[in-house]
Amino acid sequence: MITEKILGNKSDASFKESTSSDKPIRSVVKAVSWRVVGTLDTLLVSWYATGNLSMASSIASIDFVTKMILYFFHERAWNAIKWGKNE
């Protein structure tokens, strides 16, 4: 089985247990930290493209807010899709 090749002799059940042990706060912190990295990238690219740090900061700020909102709705949509979920 593929999971045995990846995980050695561990069963599917032990894999599920190990991936479900993350606390929700960890997911929130990971999402925010990733968004910060993405916003810094947008800031640097915008600054390079415009040559104006003030303009780049405005772009990065808008990017941060809009992508957090989009991410929320993206997650809610995926939550409604049953494909790939364990029942």
From TrEMBL:
Residues 1-23 are annotated as: Disordered. It comes from the Bacteria. The lineage of its organism: Bacteria, Pseudomonadati, Bacteroidota, Flavobacteriia, Flavobacteriales. It comes from Wenyingzhuangia heitensis. Residues 13-23 have a biased composition (Basic and acidic residues). This is Membrane protein. Pfam families: DUF2061. Residues 28-79 form the DUF2061 domain.
